[in-house]
Amino acid sequence: MALLSKSLLMVTIIVILMAVVVTPSRLTDDLHQEDVDGDDSPSGDLPSAGLRRLLARYKSPTCDKNPRACYIRGSGGPNCCSKKCVDVKTDRLNCGNCGGRCKFTESCCKGKCVNLAFDKGNCGKCGKKCRRGSYCIYGMCGYV
Predict the structure, then answer these.
(1) What is the C-alpha to C-alpha distance for residues 67 and 60, in angstroms, rounded to an integer?
(2) Are 44 and 31 a contacting pair, CB within 8 Å?
């Protein structure tokens, strides 16, 4: 029995050592791997040097100087709060109006701070209503 436990311990130690040795070498290989086409440029979605210079020259428009910037697709929302585009209907830090903060346990649904764990009109997520007569407990309608 003692021989079996010693051999099992030895095998476990060897497996752990192999894992420790192999993992850093795999990470190093992945970090220093060249592109398939042979150039040494970094891979990924990095823009070219010319494009980076062009983007650095022109700052992105801020909504405090151009409020219509918030209507551009991909902006944070149609409202401008503290030089940032936000949606006051869903943003926890600007719920209902700029600076209207929700508590830690609340979410912003249609511009109002609600507790999704216990709100019958927003049970578990915004807009999910519980049936008449049931309660919202821990984000589930009719939990009990």
Answers:
(1) 13
(2) no
**Model-level pTM greater than 0.85?**
no
- 103-112 confidence digits (pLDDT tens): 999 999 999 9
Count CB atoms within 10 A of the CB of residue 71: 11
Sequence ranges of the domains in the chain = 60-101
Sign of CA dihedral 19, 25, 26, 28: positive
DSSP code per residue over 29-52: HHHTPPPTTS--SPPSSPPPHHHH
Q: Cα separation of 115 and 113, whole Å?
A: 7
CA distance 2 to 116: 57
